[in-house]
Amino acid sequence: MGIVEEAFSRLFPEAAFHFEAEVAYSGKFKPYNATVKRIGNHLYFNLSVSWKNVSDEIVIGLIQHLLVKILRRENFFAAALKNGRGRLTSLNMQLYDDFIKNISEVVVTSSSSDEKLEASFNRVNEKYFLGLADKPALRWGSDSFRKLASYDYHINTITVSSLFADAPQQLLDYLLYHELLHKKLKFSSSGNGRAVHHSREFRALEQNFEGSTNIEEELNAFIRGSLGRARQQRLRNAFNWRRLLLLR
After folding, report:
1. Is pTM beyond 0.85 here?
2. According to DSSP H, which parts of 71-160 are helical?
3. Largest pairwise CA distance in the chain
4. Is the dihedral of CA 52, 44, 65, 159 positive or negative?
5. d(C-alpha 166, C-alpha 12), whole Å
């Protein structure tokens, strides 16, 4: 029995495993990342090579999480939820969750980071975490309007959209504070196997940020302004290209 079938059988003991499964390891992924793809009855699991050195019991939990993600429309999935009184979880999934939560505590982060992000972290750490927060790696990402910031448990890294490189200090500090709450509180598992990152406790602590009642409005206004500037730049670029064509 392969590791995918073993993971499936433990999660859905009353269902027959009628899939063809393949597991491949890739050095192109970030540490401890993984994906799953389904084509018909074929399941393709791609795991970071870092999983090769992890206990099979934890890897089974990872695969179970991916199975929950890809098979949630199957009849046996609904039956398992019903039989489990609305919860779909396993010891292996709990082992996996604990493993991911604790990775950030042992990952060695780079000592170098952007000066502006470093200053923001120091302000937020002193004001809201009594100076006790462990600093993750801090970096700028692409100029994304959709993903403003994120915390990656696997590599203990906060990434902030480069749109905020020249944002008001309070907005950048809020994004750092929000992501540091993710690092502090980790996540929990819901009844359907999904990870819950914004719990009631998280939302309550969010309100501790000074000016939190207006922060969403300020963020939206800043993003609208950035979108407007981006459109104007695209129009200028288009105009310049047309002008160059006319001069040829």
Report:
1. no
2. 75-83, 91-106, 115-128
3. 73
4. positive
5. 51
User: Which helix (H) or strand (E) segment is 84 a member of?
Assistant: none
As a whole number of angstroms, the distance between CA 76 and CA 92 comes to: 19
Q: Measured at the alpha carbon of residue 166, what is the angle toward residues 208 and 139, in degrees to the nearest 5?
A: 75
Reference 186, options 229, 148, 156; nearest CA is: 156
pLDDT by residue (tens digit) across 164-220?
Answer: 999 999 999 999 999 999 998 887 766 555 677 788 899 999 999 999 889 989 999
* 35 token code pair: 């994906």
Backbone angles phi and psi of 181, in degrees to 5 = -65, -40
227: its two tokens: 């979108």
Phi, psi of 96 (to 5 degrees): -60, -45
Contact 98, 65 (CB under 8 A): no
What's the token pair of residue 104? 């950030």
The one-letter amino acid code at 195 reads A
